Amino acid sequence: MGKILSAYLLPHPPIILKEIGKGREEEAQSTIDGMKKASIDIKEKAPNTIIIVTPHGPLFRDAIAISKEKELKGDFSRFGHGDLKFEFKNDTELAKEIVENSLKENIPIIGVDEKTSRDYNIIKDLDHGALVPLYYIDKEYRDYQLIHISYGLLSPEKLFEFGKVLANSVEVLGKDAIVIASGDLSHRLSSDGPYDYSPDGEKFDKKIVELIKEGRMDDIVSFDLDLAESAGECGLRSLMVMAGAIDSYKLDTEVFSYEGPFGVGYSTAKIDLSKEESPYVSLARKSLEYFVKNGEQMPAPVDISGIEKGVFVTLKKNGRLRGCIGTISPTRESLEIEIIQNAISAGTEDPRFPRVREDELDELVYSVDVLEEAEEISSIEELDIDRYGVIVSSGHRRGLLLPNLDGISSVQEQVEIALNKAGISPNERYKMERFEVKRYR
Questions:
Q1: Taking the model in full, what pTM does it have?
Q2: At what angle do helices 92-104 and 156-173 cross, to 10 degrees?
Q3: Residue 125 dihedral angles phi and psi, to the nearest 5°
Q4: Cα–Cα distance between 180 and 183 in angstroms, integer?
């Protein structure tokens, strides 16, 4: 069975090619170093297929585009260097499988060839979004076929589902592949950039780099599209496709670089993949699957640890929350039993969602948060949204919010949401506690 070996975020500014930059490429040296690191890593992985998702190929509002000709060619003539020419073999077998599987999943996709180019008046040659990363890879490794994809302006959920189609197609055909999300970050980091300056540019870049660094790729799908638009980016949709492609894997992420020369944000990163998952996550998965299929709780594991802690189990489907239930303090005789119970509750008792169906089980992504003992604090200045969760209480009313959640940008917002969950007015007297968690994915 084939697999996705690894995934990468790589930018595509032609100016980082020495032939085009003519010395100015040195202003983006960190990016160049990151491209070289990624290329060496790809050489070590030795994939037989490279899948690259670009924003600058044939762009359709209502469909994804995939190149289908046997030979894929491109050059940098748009940037004054038609002499920089590249040619790759298309993995036509995989391209055909991707198209067939996409249509089965009702994902609109179009194959791009000479006829399509004429019919739609589009350029079928490889774009700079693909060629810049391949320029660096080609210096280290050449023994591969290429899949060239231009994302369409589809919904985040559809792009994520398409990524899952990529992974499934690779596995079915027994390919060893890597996925590259080609994309620059904000183009509005300074008034010297290609677009007007926006303070949202820095916010966008910081958040994307943070999500990758922490391996929170499923949160890419629910990213704030208004912030992305204000930032003037071109990499988010590539990342959404990549997030789907690596959704079933355990992630080990490394950000090689981030910088913002020329008023544009560039980040290079790699994500190593494995099929292994944390024992706690495996237990949560087995617990819910057993309950949904058999209507009863699974037998307790033989090797009970005796550790007692509060636990939250979170379920996501296609990058969106599907259920989350937990206990602030231990209520069972062991951590393992706590996970078993809360996994069932997350899938069947969260009042925000219908019960998980058996046909959904394969689509769920689990995370398990093990809570450390809470400590009382006297001021929100003692909170940190990335490190600490918060508990607010007044009498019998109590509200909790976990740390490091997508969409929470300040401690004030963290406390307000916890108060709202508890039904406590901000004007009332209430106690605050903070706690740390160990998150397992």
A1: 0.76
A2: 130
A3: -70, 160
A4: 9
Contact between residue 146 and residue 192 where contact means Cβ atoms under 8 Å apart: no
Taking the C-alpha atoms of residue 279 and residue 265, their distance in angstroms, rounded to an integer, is 38
Helix 236-245 vs helix 156-173: crossing angle, to nearest 10: 40
8-state DSSP, 220 = G
* Closest to 180 in 3D by CA, of 394, 325, 338, 35: 35
Tell me: the pLDDT tens digits for 185-228? 999 999 888 899 999 999 999 999 999 999 989 889 989 999 99
Question: Strand order in 375-377's β-sheet?
Answer: 375-377, 431-435, 389-394, 397-401
Q: H or E element: which one contains 89?
A: strand 81-89
| H helix intervals, 6-63 | 18-21, 29-45
Positive or negative CA dihedral for 347, 349, 350, 353? positive
Strands 176-182 and 3-10: parallel
Contacts of 214 (CB under 8 A, 6+ apart): 253, 404
